[in-house]
Structures are given as C-alpha cells and as structure tokens.
Design goal:
It is built from four helices and no strands. The chain has helices at residues 8-24, 29-44, 49-74, 81-94. Helix 1 crosses helix 3. 4% of the residues are buried.
Amino acid sequence: MGSVPDGPAACLPVAIEIMTAYTDSATDPAFFWTTVQRVMADGADRADPAGAMAELVLGLATLCGITLDHLADRSSPDTGPRDLLAAIRNAYVTDPV
C-alpha cells in the first residue's frame, strides 16, 4: 500500500483543479463557481472541515509560490521575483483595471 503524501504537495491537486477551472472558464464563468462550490462541499463533508479549508488555502498559496518561481525562472536575467511581484502589485493593486 502506498503512503499518503502530506505537506504542501498533498494540497496541490485541489488548488490545481480550482485554478484550471478558472483558466478554463473564460467563456463560461459558471464552470469556475461550480467547481469551487463542489470543492467546498467536498471539504465540508470531510471529518475535519476546517482542516480541509486550511489545505485548500495552503494549496493555493503553494501554487502561487510555484507559479512565481516558474515565472522568475523564465524571465530575463534583469528581471527577478521582486520585479514580478512589483508588476503584479502595479497591475492589480495600485492601478486596477
């Protein structure tokens, strides 16, 4: 019998599912919300609903960190993670559309 993964890696599948639904919902926003509601209902049905929510938040945070690392790796040598974070802040916080 295989071991059950724990830590951030165990939290990634649900986070990836939600973010994939988000990217796939450009023409059908209801698809994203249906996925989120299903994931939340699945977590609420677990023996430890608060733990399920914590795993979801940890998974989303971990996925964000991994994404930023990949973006930084693919950026030019003159652009590092801080530059990417500054660009995100400018786009979504300082000057939101």
